[in-house]
Amino acid sequence: MTKWQLQEAKARFSELIDDTIEKGPQVVTRRGIDTAVVVSIEEWRKLRDEKRLTWKDVLLGDGPRFEIPLPNRGMVKSRRPPVYD
Question: What is the C-alpha separation between 28 and 1, in angstroms, rounded?
Fold first, then answer.
């Protein structure tokens, strides 16, 4: 990835876009700190769509897993129902 200073990226925006299409993602820095990445629309769509889960995926088990501690059966004490006079 090529790094562009913000001022240079603004002044040569067309070249930045051309390099993004031809060479891949380009990093833009501000005051020497990596601040942004410019990617092509094809790359953006690929990244966006590959991480998107549908509700069906979650229900079928392809979604995230959470470890929730559950008590063993029979270990939970139940309360007696209230008695009303």
Answer: 10
pLDDT tens for 64-81 read 667 777 777 776 677 788
- Please provide the distance, in angstroms rounded to a whole number, between the alpha carbons at the two ends of the chain: 78
What six digits make up the tokens of 70?
């559950």
- Cβ atoms within 10 A of the Cβ of 49, count? 8
Q: Which two tokens stand for residue 39?
A: 């990617």
CA count, 13 A, side-chain hemisphere, 52: 7
Taking the CA atoms of the chain, what radius of gyration do you get in angstroms?
27
DSSP string, 19-43: HHHHH--EEEEETTEEEEEE--HHH
Give the pLDDT confidence of 18-36 residue by residue, as tens digits.
999 999 999 999 999 999 9
Instruction: State the residue for tokens 């001022």.
Output: 7
pTM: 0.57
